[in-house]
Amino acid sequence: MKILLVDDDLFLCDMYATKFSEKGHEVEQAHNAESALAYLDSNEVDVVLLDMIMPGMTGVQLLTKMKEAQAVAQKTPPTFIILSNQSEESDKQAAAEAGAVGYIVKAELMPSGVVEEVEKLVKK
């Protein structure tokens, strides 16, 4: 599975990228909304994992822009999953309404558990 991991926390990005790579997944990283949009403009991915709180654009705003861009750019749209420490029901609802198929709270799972949860969500 090819994954785009979008998070402004470089340490967490590297940690999750390592865990996904250990399970055989190909991972690319973007550390802000602009680089994520630019990457998707010329690359296809299976899954986009994105944080809710980033400079310049919220995760929901970025998700909305990505879905608009992907409707044209990619034959099979990626699965969008939120990976964030924001755990309010209103955040989860806004993400679902924007098109996220899952919402994972970072603090609730070990990194290996995040990998397992993403794999489950993609299989649905």
TrEMBL record:
SUPFAM superfamilies: CheY-like (SSF52172). The modification 4-aspartylphosphate is found at D51. Keywords: Phosphoprotein. Residues 2-121 form the Response regulatory domain. It comes from the Bacteria. GO terms for biological process: phosphorelay signal transduction system. This is Response regulatory domain-containing protein. It comes from Candidatus Kaiserbacteria bacterium CG10_big_fil_rev_8_21_14_0_10_47_16. InterPro entries: Bact_response_regulator, CheY-like_superfamily, Sig_transdc_resp-reg_receiver. The keyword Phosphoprotein applies.
